[in-house]
């Protein structure tokens, strides 16, 4: 009996010591983590002060090295503050708005080198300087208690959802949002890009639920009516669509069809695969036939890759006037190897059709454009998005370069009107 009591007392003592040590360890980790957060908060505050100074410095000069250096500092410091804020457990609504403003500030400073309109730059940055100073002061007030370094991890965590927060993060978020809209409004290209992503440009006639089912049955006649369930997209969705779920034999899946125009948005089917493997030519033919039946016949195959059960194809829309590929308008298609049946589709990017503009095509001499060890092996026309979010008609070139008996392959994209190099990408 004494042995049992001794063992129990020893076990309780050991557990108590273990619990105490774990508690001490957790407290140490808590202090360490809190200290790291406080350090990052301090770093963000210091960088924000430097950013404010850099913005003011650019307002001192017209054309000088001092202006260019300060402008580069804005690009660098705005990125530093963004990284610091993004790593902190702060209210996410505020963080996202604040990082968006900082990103647009840095991008504007960087872009000004290309535009070279000093008058417009000073006008925009003068207002941004005022707003940035106000936000810097607000930031100092909001973070004063958090920089102390003795804030519990729970308190830091509460900042994520503004629980027990001593500061109005929601108010700061709205303020930053207003500054973003006033200081750096969306460009026409950015606005068009946003509308495109939300399918706001769709002007097609609405289709009924019954018409959507007919479209589905036309594309997949093997699915019986009894195995179909139709739902509408949830309220608040950026674009309304019909969500049709089906189950047939051992196959289950869904298809989404837009209300405007009845476009097949996406499709997915899950089923067991057989051991038979169809030829590649047969499978590619089935893919092209399906796209034609779906109203996506103005595409060409750009990429094909396989796994043990299926082929994954990427089809690109072709603009008819210049016979140019539109690399922003693509369709991803997945085809089963055993039957050639369609098991996956994503046409979102295709439906978000780009608004393309006519463009002059200036003939370029590639022998003068490239060095003598570079050879153009393929030349196509394509619409490609540049860093200003504009769709530009471009020469889409595949070139090789020989250096020290080694040949490397690159894709080079050159604007047909300005000869600007939009992209250079080394191929594997």
- Mean pLDDT over all positions: 79
* Span between termini: 75 Å
- Give the helix tally: 11
- Percent of residues in helices: 40-55%
Report on this structure.
The chain contains 11 helices and 12 strands. With 428 residues, the chain is α+β, with helices and mostly antiparallel strands. It folds into 3 domains: 161 residues, no CATH class; 155 residues, no CATH class; 61 residues, Nuclear Transport Factor 2, Chain: A, CATH 3.10.450.40. Strands 1, 2, 3, 4, 5, 6, 7, 8, 9, 10, 11 and 12 form a 12-stranded mixed β-sheet that branches. A hairpin with a 4-residue loop joins strand 6 and strand 7. Helix 1 runs antiparallel to helix 4 and helix 3 runs parallel beside helix 6. It is globular and about 70 Å long.
SSE layout:
Elements: H1 2-58, H2 65-86, H3 92-115, H4 118-143, H5 153-160, H6 169-183, H7 188-197, H8 209-219, E1 228-232, E2 241-248, E3 251-258, E4 264-270, H9 280-293, E5 299-306, E6 310-319, E7 324-336, E8 342-346, H10 348-351, H11 366-369, E9 374-385, E10 391-403, E11 406-415, E12 421-426
Parallel strand pairs: 7-9
Antiparallel strand pairs: 1-2, 2-3, 3-4, 4-8, 5-6, 6-7, 7-8, 9-10, 10-11, 11-12
Helix pairs in contact: 1-2, 1-4, 2-3, 3-6, 4-6
